């Protein structure tokens, strides 16, 4: 037993060095820069502009999580329970995005949605619109771009849950005369609830720290927390504020995690 | 007990030359069988003999690859499980893991759109019937195997299906609980008059519960009959050996066994073996017609009786039971003895 503990020491050292120390640094910064005290926190939590960023981040992340998990549920359904051809095609669609960088994907959406992008051009050519629709540099674009990036991550916990569903339980429900709709809503969906919670956790935590996509597709119009922290570090250096914001973000995410995990634990019982 | 098994003689389900292939593999071949309304039919056979497959074909959970199925004279071959509406207790129960005991039992009732009050009544009644009062609000995971079993039974019976299909419902239970549940099932069958088709590995269970037994082997139906039919008059060697213990003797072609002349039963023509149940074989007394010389190999003491393991002169093994009460002293191992039986208790296979 002792020997094993000894063997995991390098990992502990590495994690401590790469996470704990910087974190302690940030904690210190958040209470001391520019002046000691809780000033940074009270500023972050009272400045209307900062609050609006927090509020927007929360809103967008909730929407993105809902959209991603719902879309991923349908995709996973096709992947796990579809006909063989549907399965392979879906698998391809799930895997390909993993090979394309987040930057290229954001640019892809920009060329698709921008004022002189593909979508607007087509709509104009078809005579459906006169002037370009404003599809980028707003929350809509941010939500689309973020969801598109996060969907594949939601697929895996969902797939695990769906594969664990005992086929005979569905067969039994069918034998009792239940319609397909009822079997889905009252049997299959609740039986995959653990996967939904897992996917929600994963996507939400990822989305909160998102930087590239909102920065590009939001075009500075819908700044999220990650971008605000970036601004406070590189553009208008206020490291203490950036640090306080980071700590708040971490606590918020941690709190949500604990809450959902507890719910998850109850489900597993 | 036999008198309880009175069965209305109307055919409810009929299988006509039903076959099932999985790819190239014949899981079932040419099964023809009639099931009467209200009967308790057991499907018995070794593992992999096609019992579950036949049950799922009856229930409409799988499609037949040949032959036809009829329900009350109507061709139901193409009907889905949903349309047939038989109840089924699956091997492994298939309870809804996210629902409580009460919700599990209520599920099929909600499907039937019964009123809330009716559902509550029926659920309470079923919970009571299978002895699960006090467990209504537990999830299946919090129940023992036997309790889950009973939930599955209650759920399948709750909506009063015409036919109940049961796939080894007692396989997970220990001996005591098993006996208790068998009693329960017999009672339910008597009270409800539902047709039961019951799959089991356990021959004693089949003999004790059924009005008729269908014996399967390698996807083929070997014999169908009442318990004493299949036990006393097995149609072939497989059935004879599968059900209970049996002594098999090779016939030597000159109406005898290893040179000793023997009276053969009527069906012996063309068959090579003679079968006698151990309980029909005895140590020979003066004047017994069929006598065969044997040597005592071993004697196993079983309390009220002993099991004698014997060997014929041709080297075939026999077995018989000897009462340990008053009587001549038990023979010693190695003793030369003679066994006897009545012709009508023997059959050729
Ligand atoms: N879906 C399937 N695909 C391929 N082969 C199958 C399938 N279902 C059953 N079989 C085969 O059909 C044969 C009969 O299976 P079945 O499950 O009916 O046996 P059983 O009599 O119920 O056995 P047990 O007593 O072990 O439950 C087996 O050899 C099995 O491997
Ligand atoms: Mg089986």
From TrEMBL, chain A:
Q: Name the residues that span the membrane.
A: 56-80, 92-112, 140-162, 183-216, 236-260
Q: Which UniProt keywords apply?
A: Cell membrane, Membrane, Transmembrane, Transmembrane helix, Transport
Record has Transmembrane helix as a keyword: yes
- Its main localization is membrane
Q: Where is the ABC transmembrane type-1 domain?
A: 54-260
Where does the secretion signal sit in this chain?
A: none
The record describes its membrane topology as: Multi-pass membrane protein
**SUPFAM superfamilies recorded:** MetI-like
What Pfam families does this protein's entry cite? BPD_transp_1
Q: Where is it located?
A: Cell membrane
Q: Which Gene3D superfamilies does the protein's record reference?
A: MetI-like
Which PANTHER family does its entry note? ABC TRANSPORTER PERMEASE PROTEIN, INNER MEMBRANE ABC TRANSPORTER PERMEASE PROTEIN YDCU-RELATED-RELATED
Indicate the family of this protein: Belongs to the binding-protein-dependent transport system permease family. CysTW subfamily.
Q: Please identify the protein, giving its name as recorded.
A: ABC transporter permease
Q: Taxonomically, what lineage is the organism?
A: Bacteria, Pseudomonadati, Pseudomonadota, Alphaproteobacteria, Rhodobacterales
From TrEMBL, chain B:
UniProt keywords (A-Z) are:
ATP-binding, Nucleotide-binding, Transport
One function term, GO molecular function aspect: ATP binding
Q: State the superkingdom.
A: Bacteria
Nucleotide-binding in keyword set: yes
Cell membrane as UniProt keyword: no
Tell me the ranges covered by the ABC transporter domain, including all copies. 13-243
**Classification via InterPro entries:** AAA+_ATPase (IPR003593), ABC_SmlMolc_Importer (IPR050093), ABC_transporter-like_ATP-bd (IPR003439), ABC_transporter-like_CS (IPR017871), Mo/tungstate-bd_C_term_dom (IPR008995), P-loop_NTPase (IPR027417), Transp-assoc_OB_typ2 (IPR013611)
Read off the Pfam families from this record.
Answer: ABC_tran, TOBE_2
Q: SMART domains given for it?
A: AAA
Q: What is this protein called?
A: ABC transporter ATP-binding protein
Q: Which organism is it from?
A: Salipiger mangrovisoli
